[in-house]
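Table 4 source record.
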Amino acid sequence: MCRHLAFVSAVPQPLHALLVGAPHSLVDQARAPRLQTWGDDNPDGWGVGWFDDQGRIQRYRTAAPIWDDPEVEQLAATVTTRAALAAVRLASPGATVTAAGTAPFTADGRWLFSLNGSVEGFYDGVGDELRKLASPRRLAAVESDADTEVLFALVLDFLDAGASPADALRHVIDLVEERTTGRLNLLLTDGHVLVASAWGSSLFRASSLLASEPLADDPTWQPVPDRSVLTLDAATHPAFRHVFVRSANENVPKTR
């Protein structure tokens, strides 16, 4: 099922609270999630991506559980950044457990991406259908058998075609729902803009931070309405904007 979180901010923030320091940090959400609807924990790897002082993406991924990985303490103690995305993984049935299949995924030296959820039937034919929709260029960069990475390839195709980040997520959700069902909580950031969908799984927001579950029992954490897309631009819109609730029968442009 997975848990994930991300933030963008005008002021650099340490990763410590997000990963290990908060009362319900990512380590705690991995080992003892409170709102996860499938699976009791997330033992199949974890990863974090962030933007350094020059705006370059740095990333760490492993197939080890976050609670057994000593590197998490090192990253928590040393990394300060204006934007980051981190995730813990419970692999979907049929998926291979490898670091290559663990979020966050990255592309073009610009984007970080993750999925909290799964595409129903992905390993029973739906994945093949979705791969056929991706451009050869983006499909060639797919390294794992994870449904997340195929969805990312499709998101990138829509971005390449000129879609906004929010619309790119929305169109990929439509492509999936034309073929199957799924839990499709997507996160996408370029270090300046953060876009997310709440689609079948829990998502909460507080200030410039989004997370599958609140990091603390604090009233500032508010649930994001299901079947919606949010966007935050750290430079021009310091608060999240609720930009879309899906309406039926919308036209989806071609990705290529």
